[in-house]
Amino acid sequence: MRAVGVKEYGTTPELLDVPKPTPGPGQLLVRVEAAGINPVDSIIAAGVYGKPPLPLVMGVDFAGRVEALGAGVSRYAVGDAVFGRAQGTYAEYVVVDETGPVAAAPDAVELKTSAALPTAGATALGILERAKVRGGESLLLIGAAGGVGTFLTQLASARDVRVVAVTRGDESVRMGLFGAAVTIDATAESVPDRMERDEYPEGVDVLVDLVSSDKAAFAANKKMVHDGGVAVSTRGAVSEHGSVQSGVEEIAFLVEPTAEVLAALAKEVDAGTLKVFVDAEVPLEQAPQAVARIQGGGARGKTIVKL
Ligand SMILES: NC(=O)c1ccc[n+]([C@@H]2O[C@H](COP(=O)([O-])OP(=O)(O)OC[C@H]3O[C@@H](n4cnc5c(N)ncnc54)[C@H](OP(=O)(O)O)[C@@H]3O)[C@@H](O)[C@H]2O)c1
């Protein structure tokens, strides 16, 4: 089958011809309709999280239809529209355990669009859960215009959270449509100055930093949170003793996209509280270029690979 991945860790992704997988007991064979691109795809392909066998098919998010069932499968039938996570989704087929991270796709969007949801959507929902956001809080979101940011802005504002969205470039119209109360263009003004002067001189309740990869940058952003607040990093940039030192709880977030979380996302999409912003759709042959573009920054919403 056709796929895109790497023959050596850290090399440029390319078109591959790899064997079509067969579903084992309890597994679904899914004919992939689209794969979502995430920053983590390149990190996995660089061998950072381990050295799975090569060639390595890239991608973790998929949407598609169940084509065949392994022995004993009871939750799904052939033809079901599903979305979820599996390693190697830039490919015509993937297998996934029926009890794994897979759920019925939402009805309100085209099936291919659901491929944008699993990782970024589960991250957005999971952050609200981990930070114990219950509604009414203020939330400073750094890196708001990308995959996680556009989902989180919507899910938070639907819970009456006042979102201050930080972007690079003027994204105020789009972020406003997603529910941000304020959008700050970090290339046009100093975010700390604006927060101190106009928005939250006393500090926000919650910081979600999707951008800072080093502890110093995260610590600087954490200063915009008041004592007793929460600061979340999706990039592991938390300090070792930060919460003790500053009175701000630090969370190094790690996504856990279970079937339950995916079902909750589908429900939000069907309820109209979560719009999926697909900025670009590329055919499989152009996945390597799309991955390179995203690595270079500038993501707006999600990019999907159409199989
Ligand atoms: N720990 C976990 O479980 C987990 C889960 C999901 C994602 N992540 C990580 O979280 C990060 C965000 O994920 P994502 O899927 O949302 O990535 P994405 O779709 O690439 O979006 C990142 C966004 O941040 C913006 N950005 C970069 N630097 C910025 C700055 N200084 N100020 C404001 N905006 C800035 C980018 O646009 P510009 O380049 O135009 O500024 C882009 O819109 C990634 O590093 C990803 O690997 C971690």
Automatic annotation (TrEMBL):
CDD domains: MDR_like_2. Residues 10-305 form the Enoyl reductase (ER) domain. Gene3D superfamilies: Medium-chain alcohol dehydrogenases, catalytic domain, NAD(P)-binding Rossmann-like Domain. It comes from the Bacteria. InterPro entries: ADH-like_N (IPR013154), ER (IPR020843), GroES-like_sf (IPR011032), Lipid_raft_assoc_Zn_ADH (IPR052585), NAD(P)-bd_dom_sf (IPR036291), Quin_OxRdtase/zeta-crystal_CS (IPR002364). PROSITE patterns: QOR_ZETA_CRYSTAL. This is NADP-dependent oxidoreductase. It comes from Catenulispora subtropica.
